[in-house]
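Q: What would this chain look like folded?
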Amino acid sequence: MSQQLRIGVLGAGWGAGLHLEGFRRVPGVTLAALSSRTRSRAERRAAEFGVPLVTDDIDELIEAVDVVSVATPPAAHLDAVLAAVRAGRHVLCDKPVALTAPDARAMLDAAERAGVRHASGFIWRNDPALVELRRLLREGAIGPVLEVHSTGALGVPVLPMTWMYEAGDGGGALAQHGSHVIDRARWLVGAEVTAVCGRLHHDVKEAVVAADFHDITDAFAWARQHHGTTVDAPRAPVRADTGYDFVATFDSGVRARFWEAWHLAGPAEDEVVVFGETGTLRWRGASGLTLHRIGAAPEVRDVDRAAGSGANTPREIGLARWGELAAAFVAAINGAADTGHPTLTDGWRVAAISDAVRRSHHSGRWEEVR
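A: My prediction, written as structure tokens:
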């Protein structure tokens, strides 16, 4: 391996830009290759970041790099990750890492057999206020944890038809932002979900077919301009959920509630509330962190650069989170013992929880996470 780690990014849309900028901020790496099904877009993205090799052949990209960063829509993740690890390449795969838990487990097992380092894109663990919340929990600031609520009304406009509205492509609230919502709760509590009971919401039945949006930010821009509708365009059925709510149990005995809605109007801010025996910790995105203790006034904990993980998050905040993940992953590749970065193990566990929620939606019963 060369002294400079050579990075190859699969994809050329909005997510690829985040991956490229994240790695560009890390010393000791070179952005070496970029691949996309739309070569013209890949060439423009490569020119933006000074990437020398543009290819539509994944094998050519893999051959040219040490690290493969997968920023394609989720349906393409499995084949890409398996091809990369077969070739002995380290791999970072965006979330959700796979469409199902068995696929995610196949990725993890392949990476472990190959002996390569791996990471998943749960960047919001690095929010400074969540890091502080986790530290306070470990110090016992609110006593033993009893319950956690992880929720968010994102306030996203109704979109035109994209893969985000196709469950078979990895779209939907549970798969997309829900991956972050689930992961941050299990990371904060330090335990694993064992069973869930809940449902998915399908508030949007059809969407306007406006264009072939390769970059999801173009679809968001169109939606904000047209308010999700147009009279003359055809429509297509929406096959993905636009929200969910479920309750869960952790193996530590902690209870949990998860809720999200994409298109409800109102304050678009994530919230995590952790209830303990002697107090409560509440995180509300950019509004920060508050400690409530029984019989005492609320304590607002000032934390710089705190932000929520919704659609309205400032771009620089998201880029900073990607840079932090990329730096931790590169450190792990270079031999750091424990960077604490999210891995394919985390991606698999979140996928298993999501699968259980989908089973519960259809069964109307509690479902074990397996």
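The chain has ten helices and 17 strands.
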